[in-house]
Design brief:
This protein has 17 helices and 19 strands. Strands 1, 2, 3, 4, 5, 6, 17, 18 and 19 form a nine-stranded mixed sheet that branches. A five-stranded parallel sheet has the order 12-13-14-15-16. The structure holds zinc ion.
């Protein structure tokens, strides 16, 4: 391949080199998690869910060369190159590494207390099958940026990261959030954090339209995107201002609050009441969908966190990795939630997903994240897998659900040339399931190996490294 390109001419060779994936650097610190690391790897006899929304293909062989997918084809007609490291995936299934866009490196460890758990979280994300992620707001300042750099240098095991700056917000009650004093301050904050290395921004519930407009235009000047978990600004207003993405899909929209005052958050619960009663075929909903699609605004669905608020839902997966104290704390929360008879989430949880599906099927850009905040119980890695299960329960086909958590995220992040689907030429970011999610959906929990640029990380070893200690590091 390389010789052919060189014969074709210098310019072509340069262009080829610029897109050539390489295996990522692996420090001694993280080598213990690696089970496959070779210049040429053949994954044979795998069932393939390719991330594009296409149906599964049986008995495929993938050849990985220098961190990139070089060949995919039927095993019967795809020879294994001499000297390749062969991994027989008979009875197993592969999909692209997940690209999730509402992740965090912090977790609620007590009322109003947010533990900075980046060290364990990045390992859990990778173990769960996430190879790229955006953090959706941070309350620390530099941790996300530093962690991104350490992962890229190979000194920490974790996904590629789009690191957000601290939240952009107006007057609010979170002591962890700065209050913007106006549009000049919004511009200043965007430039400060972009200079520090932040690669995206998140607006929060009390931001004013003017501050949001200033932040969006300043971020766009630097080629960076802005998302928002909004309330004070409606979705239609934010779309007009040019926002790129809205968090929690329609669950945070205040567009349908009858007497909504400009720049004021009527309360998340007030907005949610209007969403819980919303008909996906109603003209006002269809008009908002059209506005979002026309303006190219992506919506992030975050069902894993909303499930933890909803009575009657099962305990979420992965609680065993928490410290015993945090595990017990969440189990008590879950038991209390189960008894709450008048919870809006009893109708809102599935309604939100119904609206997501309507938006997606109408051609809307739907992406996904887990949001490990709320009242706890959303465990990185495990909750990313859970997201696929919930989307399927809500009526997405499995290939559609996988497209949402892989290729759609990559498109949003502008990384779909290098990751997000299993096609020749892209990075070998690949999740191996020990089973077949097309017949048993819970097999998405059986992640065995996660390839990041062709290097295979052992999921169980990564989890064992943090098990029982998540909460204290
Ligand atoms: Zn969040």
């Amino acid at each position: 391949m390389r010789q052919t390109v060189l014969v074709a001419g210098v310019l072509v060779a340069v262009a080829f080199a610029s897109v050539q994936a390489q295996r990522p650097p692996i420090s001694n610190n993280i080598r213990r998690f690696v089970t496959v690391d070779a210049p040429v790897v053949a994954l044979t006899h795998a069932k393939v869910l390719d991330g594009t929304g296409a149906s599964a293909r049986n008995d495929q062989t993938l050849i990985i060369r220098d961190g990139r997918i070089a060949v995919i084809g039927a095993s019967a007609s795809t020879p294994v190159p001499e000297g390749a490291t062969v991994v027989d995936l008979t009875g197993k299934t592969v999909m692209p590494g997940m690209v999730m866009v509402h992740e965090h490196l912090y977790y609620p460890t007590g009322p109003g207390v947010y533990g900075q758990l980046g060290e364990s979280f990045v390992q859990l994300y990778l173990a769960g099958g996430v190879t790229s992620m955006r953090t959706g707001g941070n309350v620390h300042g530099t941790m996300d940026i530093n962690m991104k750099r350490l992962i890229e240098a190979g000194s920490k095991a974790g996904p590629w990261m789009d690191a957000t700056a601290p939240y952009l917000n107006g007057p609010n009650t979170f002591q962890q959030m700065r209050v913007l004093s106006g549009p000049d301050d919004a511009r200043k904050q965007v430039n400060y954090w972009a200079d520090e290395g932040a690669t995206s921004f998140k607006a929060y519930m009390n931001i004013s339209r003017d501050d949001l407009a200033a932040a969006i235009s300043e971020a766009h000047k630097r080629g960076l995107k802005v998302t928002g978990h909004l309330c004070s600004v409606t979705y239609a207003e934010a779309a007009e201002l040019g926002i790129d993405n809205l968090e929690h899909s329609f669950m945070a929209a205040t567009d349908f609050v009858a007497d909504k005052k400009p720049n004021a958050c009527p309360g998340q619960a007030v907005g949610q009441k209007t969403i819980a009663g919303l008909d996906p075929k109603s003209p006002q909903f269809l008009a908002l969908v059209k506005t979002l699609i026309d303006m190219g605004v992506s919506l992030t669905t975050t069902p894993a966190v909303f499930e933890t608020f909803t009575p009657g839902r099962p305990l979420p997966p992965g609680l065993e990795v928490l410290t015993p104290q945090l595990k017990e704390q969440f189990e008590q929360t879950h038991a209390r939630t189960a008894k709450s008879a008048n919870s809006i989430y009893s109708t809102l949880f599935m309604k939100g997903l119904e609206l997501d599906l309507a938006f997606f099927r109408a051609g809307g850009k739907l992406v996904a994240g887990t949001d490990p905040t709320g009242s706890g119980g959303v465990i990185p890695g495990f909750s990313n897998q859970r997201t696929i299960e919930i989307l399927v329960e809500a009526g997405f086909t499995l290939p559609e659900a996988i497209q949402v958590v892989t290729l759609n995220g990559a498109r949003y992040l502008g990384r779909d040339q290098s990751t997000g689907s299993l096609v020749v030429g892209k990075q070998a970011d690949i999740v191996v399931f020990n089973g077949d999610p097309t017949s048993t959906i819970s097999d998405v929990r059986k992640v065995e190996t996660v390839f990041k640029q062709g290097v295979g990380f052992d999921s169980a070893r990564l989890i064992a490294n943090v098990a029982g200690r998540v909460g204290i590091f």
